[in-house]
Design goal:
Elements: E1 5-9, H1 16-30, E2 33-40, H2 43-46, H3 56-87, E3 92-93, E4 104-111, H4 114-122, E5 127-130, H5 143-151, E6 156-158, E7 170-174, H6 179-192, E8 197-204, H7 212-221, E9 226-232, H8 238-249, E10 253-257, H9 263-269, H10 272-279, E11 284-287
Parallel strand pairs: 1-2, 1-5, 2-4, 3-4, 5-6, 7-8, 7-10, 8-9, 10-11
Antiparallel strand pairs: 6-11
């Protein structure tokens, strides 16, 4: 598979700039078209949450507040797109215009439920680029990111809080023999084939794990130069062990399967995906 079409969702919030810069960096490297996608909240979806026991005046005030905030975020998203595209000399395509070959960007906005629309539209793209939550005490993934991972059927590149100057030169692959792991490896292959180096990490948590040499050999068939690291968790969470090994190896991106166990289990008990999403400072390529 080649990556020729990238969907980058930005909500106009604080993480939007780093997310868009990350998407444009990948798009430039791969010669892909980046669609910058913003979803405005339709007030009809906000009102039912607070309608019980409220007067018509109160509901009107809620609708007005949602409209103002939605319009403000849409304006920020468009302004950011215009600034980064112009500053970076990115070929811009008007909505509905003919798509030229190679690197380019376009902007699209729709109104509705953000998590549903991003996952649905993402099915038409080769790679999605999204942000994650960074606040203390918050779940590690937004509903939009979580839904995209679980329902788009596409690999998701999770942008870091600060956009990297370059990425994909040295890619770490956290391998575990699961279907999500296979999907993540397949989704990352266009990036792995361009990488200067790859490191395959497996973690011994006290039970039998795959030999990283198997994946190193598999990548070799695709012309990817890789080394293997099999490490003991040593009292650490597996996710933390993976992040520490990836950083120690000098990787600038981490690839792994997401939510091999249920999201509810991870929310309650924790898990590798939750740990990595919460703690990673490098870009993550995830797939379910």
């Amino acid at each position: 598979m080649t990556i020729k079409r990238i969907l980058c969702h930005i909500d106009g919030g604080d993480d939007s700039e780093a997310t868009l810069q990350t998407a444009l960096t990948v798009g430039r490297d791969l010669g892909a078209c980046v669609e910058v996608y913003h979803v405005e909240l339709d007030p009809q979806y906000a009102v039912p949450l607070a309608a019980d026991g409220m007067t018509a005046t109160m509901i009107e005030e809620i609708v007005e507040t949602v409209e103002k905030e939605s319009s403000k975020r849409a304006g920020r998203a468009r302004q950011l797109y215009d600034q980064l595209v112009q500053h970076g000399g990115v070929p811009a395509i008007e909505a509905g215009g003919e798509v030229p070959p190679g690197f380019a960007a376009t902007f699209r906005t729709e109104r509705g439920r953000e998590h549903e629309l991003v996952a649905q539209r993402g099915m038409l793209f080769d790679l999605l680029v999204l942000s994650r939550r960074h606040g203390e005490g918050e779940p590690p993934a937004t509903p939009t990111l979580e839904t995209a991972i679980m329902e788009s059927g596409r690999p998701i590149l999770v942008a870091p809080q600060r956009a990297p100057g370059a990425l994909g030169k040295h890619i770490a692959v956290a391998w575990r023999a699961t279907v999500p792991g296979v999907h993540a490896l397949a989704g990352a292959m266009p990036l792995l084939e361009r990488a200067e180096q790859a490191t395959v990490i497996t973690v011994d948590e006290g039970h039998t794990e795959a030999d990283p040499g198997d994946i190193v050999g598999y990548l070799g068939y695709h012309g990817v130069r890789a080394a293997g690291r099999h490490v003991k968790a040593g009292g650490r969470e597996a996710g933390q062990a993976i992040l520490e090994e990836a950083a120690s190896a000098g990787a600038d991106m981490l690839v792994m399967g997401a939510y091999a166990h249920s999201r509810l289990r991870q929310l309650i008990l924790g898990g590798v995906t939750s740990t990595v999403l919460r703690s990673a400072s490098m870009p993550l390529l995830l797939a379910h």
